[in-house]
Amino acid sequence: MLTYRHQIMRNLKFGTLPRFTELQKKKNELLAGAGLTPYDIWAPAFGGLHHLVLEARFESMAAFEAEHLAQKKIEGMATLNAEQLECVIEGTAQDRLQRLGLPAR
Questions:
Q1: Predicted pLDDT of residue 3
Q2: How many CA atoms, within 13 angstroms, populate the side-chain half-sphere of residue 99?
Q3: Of 26, 16, 41, whose CA–CA distance to 80 is shortest?
Q4: Between the CA of residue 31 and those of 24, 35, 62, 99, what are the distances in Å?
Q5: Is it the case that residue 46 has pLDDT exceeding 80?
Q6: What is the pLDDT at residue 51?
Q7: CATH of domain 3-96
Q8: Across-strand partners of 43?
């Protein structure tokens, strides 16, 4: 079965990890309350303490796109996104959407 993994990779300013994760927990509560997929929060095993990854899996590209559009309609989400961006080192934000698995032949 194919799945799609969305990763949001951020390099955070020194000392902002607690604030960023607090904001993500609030965003996850809003997502779950709207019946959408919350994001896991983790840090890679290499690099500095300021590297952070948010990750969620979706059953299809269409499911990802539908949730992405639905997120934009959640009241307060844009404010939380803006507050998180204040924690990010400028120019380091990256997002990645990967298809996992290959279709059966």
A1: 92
A2: 8
A3: 26
A4: 10, 6, 17, 22
A5: no
A6: 86
A7: 3.30.70.100
A8: none
Tokens 């059953």 -> residue: 59
pLDDT at 48 over 90: no
Q: Check residues 5 and 48 and name the one with the higher pLDDT.
A: 5
* Phi/psi at 40 (5° precision): -75, 150
Residue 90 has pLDDT above 90, yes or no: yes
17: tokens are: 């990890």
DSSP of the chain, one letter per residue? --EEEEEEEEEBPTT-HHHHHHHHHHHHHHHHHTT----EEE--SSS-TTEEEEEEEESSHHHHHHHHHHHTTSTTHHHHHHHHHTTBPTT--EEEEEEES----
Domain boundaries, the chain: 3-96
